[in-house]
Amino acid sequence: MCNFLSVIVLKNLDIIWDPGYPDRHEELIKKHNLVDDEKGFYLEKFCRVEFIPRDLTKNLNDIHNWNLSIDESNIPEWLSVEMITNKLWTIISGMFVQDKRETLQDGCYILLDGAEVKDVNNCRIQYMTGNSKVEAMRGSSKVWVMKGNSEVETMRGSSKVGVMWENSKVGVMWENSKVETMWDNSKVGVMWENSKVEIMMGSSKVETMMGNSKVETMWENSKVGVMWENSKVEAMWENSKVETMMGNSKVETMWENSKVDKRIRKAWL
Prior knowledge:
Strands 5-7-9-11-13-15-17-19-21-23 form a ten-stranded parallel sheet, with no helix packed on it. The chain has a ten-stranded parallel sheet with strand order 6-8-10-12-14-16-18-20-22-24, with no helix packed on it. A four-stranded antiparallel sheet has the order 2-1-3-4, sandwiched between helices. The model is unreliable at 262-269 (pLDDT under 50). The two termini are 36 Å apart. The protein is mostly beta strands and 269 residues long. Helix content is 7%, strand content 36%. It contains two helices and 24 strands. It has two domains: 6-93, no CATH class; 96-260, no CATH class.
């Protein structure tokens, strides 16, 4: 996996990128029928470039907090670092949202402090920072990193949240929604249909997981509420608690006053 933002720079200094693609240079090369080769002759025509935040704890709307990285063994002579940096900053700046919006439709966005969006449809939210908030995510929308006190309510379709830090919160998650890496008092509400949570720390809490839901590695007073249909919890520490697990649910490695409700059926401890 390459890093955000991954692009292809052509010799004429045009930039190829796609907000709908994951950050993989090879996908862009394939999509645009570029010819790659092992001897490096392709560097006469294009090169792989990434534009990466230096520090996610600092302002993302500051160009000095972004680093241009040439993802090649050799840097082609025709590449103008200054010009490409300015072009990539123009692309990144167009992603910023820091006001109130009714809808975000398609595309890639970065939600800064003060952003409030009612409806996100088929979007890629790369970063949510500060107190940014999304009320509803639909279609195949994704959030990659949530920081600060960012909040998402009501995720539908195949929506997905990646890394969540610092009191971030997700409300209702439907239809194969997924959360990974929740830290610092993070919370997930209702999760349905094959939902999955991994690595919850810092008093994290999950309630009402259904449809083959799964939780792994919950620490520090973490709690899971109702889990149905082959749900599974592994490695719960420090006063963690599970209540009402049904349908061949499984719990492994619960320490320090952890508790599982007696209403479990067909379960293994």
